[in-house]
# Entry
Amino acid sequence: LFLLEKDPILAEKYVDKALKINEFSDEALYTKGLILQRKAQYKDAAMVYEKAYKINPSHILAFYNRAVIEYIFENNAESIWEIQAYIGPNGNDNYYSWYGIAQGVRG
# Structure
């Protein structure tokens, strides 16, 4: 991620190489999503984040970034549904925190 800040073009080349080697790398997919998101390619970024968290359901950052993109584009129902499906209303404190994020509550 340091390289992403310093040289985004080189970072994208490395990530693309990593994905050619292992297309199922959740970390490489997540990084690709960050690159796409920074290039304002939000739809593509959201799809890549979704792939990452389907491969690794505990990859909370990929999940979170996808939900944020949904929220940015005012697809609040989709964002809230994703959060509920991911965390579930089982009394987990994190559920309520995520629900607040999807509702646009800022701390």
The CA atoms of residues 68 and 83 lie 10 Å apart. The longest helix spans residues 8-21.
